[in-house]
Design a protein that fits this description.
The chain is built from 9 helices and 12 strands. Strands 2-1-3-5-6-4 form a 6-stranded mixed sheet, sandwiched between helices. A 6-stranded parallel sheet has the order 9-8-7-10-11-12, sandwiched between helices. It has 2 domains: 131 residues, Rossmann fold (3-Layer(aba) Sandwich), CATH 3.40.50.10860; 156 residues, Rossmann fold (3-Layer(aba) Sandwich). By secondary structure, the protein is an alpha/beta fold.
C-alpha cells in the first residue's frame, strides 16, 4: 500500500515542493507519494489529525500555519519549540512530532550559496511570521551584531524581538556583553533610505512578490532605499527572480533567492521522514527545472 506525505498550507498554487520531494522519494524507489493538501483554516485540525492514519508518514507545513500547528501536535522538538514554529511533522509510532528545518535550510543556503557569515554583521528581517522566527533565531545563534525586525503588524515584530531577547538571556547569561542589539521598527520606516543605511544583510520573509499571491509582482522595498553592496536574501522562491531581487540587482546589491533554502530545508525534512540521506543534487535539479520551465 502506498504511503503519503502532504504539504499543508493555504494557498499552495506556488509550491514546487511536491516535484522535488517526489524526485527524491523515487530515487530510493520508495512507495511514498508527496501531495499538496491545500487547507482552509477551519480544516487545519482535521488535516493534522488525519496524519495519524496508518498510510501517512508526515507532512510539511507552510504559510500560514507554521505557528498554528504547534498545539495540534503531541511533541515539538527543542529547536522548533524555541523558534515557535514548525514546518515538518513526522509520525513516530502513534505520535505526531514537530520539527523546524527552516532554520537549517536558511543558514545552509546563506553559507553555501550566499557566502555570508553573520557574526558581527547588521541584519534586517522583513516579516515576523514562521519563517522569520527561524531566521531570527539562527542569526542570533550566529552572533549578529544587530538585528532589526519589521512587519506589517508592528506587534508581531515587537513580540519576535522580545522572544529573541528572552532566548539570548536564557541561553547565555554569562556573556551579556556580546548580546546583539535586537529591535523592532514600523513597516512604514522602510520608505526611508536611512532605515537600511548601515545593514549588511536584508532577509525578506513575507509573501510579497510570490507567484499566485495577492501581492504578485510587488516588492517590499523600493529601488531608492536599497543600499549598494548589501546582501538581499529573499526567501520567496517562485518566481526564480522576485521583484525585490530585480530591484536589488539594479541597486548594485548582492542577491540570494529562496530556492536553495527551500531545497535544503526539504532535504532535512526528507531525512526525518525516511531516515535516508537526501539526494540533494537530484532535488535541486528538479526544483530548477520546474521553476525555469514555467510550471508550478
Amino acid at each position: 500500500m502506498s504511503r503519503y506525505i502532504g504539504l499543508i498550507g493555504y494557498p499552495l498554487k506556488h509550491s514546487i515542493s511536491p516535484y522535488f520531494q517526489q524526485a527524491a522519494l523515487d530515487y530510493y524507489r520508495l512507495d511514498i507519494r508527496y501531495e499538496t493538501w491545500e487547507t482552509g483554516p477551519a480544516r487545519l485540525q482535521d488535516i493534522v489529525n488525519n496524519l495519524r492514519k496508518p498510510h501517512n508518514v508526515g507532512a510539511n507545513v507552510t504559510v500560514p500555519y507554521k505557528e498554528a500547528v504547534l498545539p495540534l501536535l503531541d511533541e515539538v522538538d527543542d529547536l522548533a519549540s524555541s523558534i515557535g514554529a514548525v514546518n515538518t511533522i513526522v509520525k513516530k509510532d502513534d505520535k505526531l512530532v514537530g520539527f523546524n528545518t527552516d532554520a537549517y535550510g536558511f543558514i545552509e543556503a546563506l553559507d553555501k550559496e550566499g557566502h555570508f557569515a553573520p557574526e558581527g554583521k547588521q541584519a534586517v528581517i522583513l516579516g515576523a511570521g514562521g519563517v522569520a522566527r527561524a531566521v531570527g533565531f539562527v542569526l542570533v545563534q550566529r552572533k549578529v551584531a544587530s538585528l532589526a525586525i519589521t512587519d506589517g503588524i508592528f506587534e508581531r515584530a515587537s513580540a519576535l524581538a522580545e522572544n529573541l531577547v528572552m532566548y539570548i538571556k536564557g541561553a547565555s547569561p554569562s556573556s551579556r556583553n556580546l548580546e546583539p542589539a535586537i529591535t523592532a521598527f514600523q513597516w512604514q520606516d522602510l520608505s526611508s533610505a536611512k532605515t537600511l543605511d548601515n545593514c549588511d544583510l536584508i532577509v525578506h520573509c513575507t509573501t510579497i512578490g510570490m507567484k499566485h499571491s495577492s501581492q504578485e509582482g510587488q516588492s517590499p522595498l523600493s529601488l531608492e532605499v536599497l543600499p549598494k553592496n548589501v546582501l538581499v536574501y529573499d526567501v520567496v522562491y517562485n518566481p526564480w527572480l522576485t521583484p525585490l531581487l530585480r530591484l536589488a540587482q539594479k541597486a548594485g546589491a548582492n542577491i540570494l533567492g529562496g530556492l536553495p533554502m527551500l531545497v535544503y530545508q526539504g532535504a532535512a525534512s526528507f531525512k526525518l521522514w525516511t531516515g535516508r540521506k537526501a539526494p540533494v543534487d537530484i532535488m535541486f535539479n528538479k526544483a530548477k527545472e520546474i521553476l525555469t520551465g514555467g510550471q508550478g
